[in-house]
Amino acid sequence: MHGPDGKEYHNKSIFKEVIPFKKIVYQHFAPSFLATIEFEGRGEQTFLRWLLC
Fold it and tell me: Of the candidates 42, 43, 41, which has an alpha carbon nearest to the alpha carbon of residue 23?
């Protein structure tokens, strides 16, 4: 990732689960966390539920 000042930020993520239009789960490193993002259609909008462990 490149910041607006040109500085580089090294990132590593591994996608554990991808269910199109439903859910994404990924493990991020440094800092270490597991993220789960769930998508729910509500009419013409989409509700996001974002969980970090």
Answer: 41
What's phi and psi for 27, nearest 5 deg?
Answer: -100, 125
pLDDT level of residue 14 (50, 70, 90 thresholds) = very high
The owner of tokens 């996608």 is 15
Mean pLDDT of the chain: 95
Residue 23 near residue 35 (C-beta atoms within 8 A): no
pTM of the entire structure?
0.80
User: Distance (Å, rounded) from C-alpha 52 to C-alpha 37?
Assistant: 9
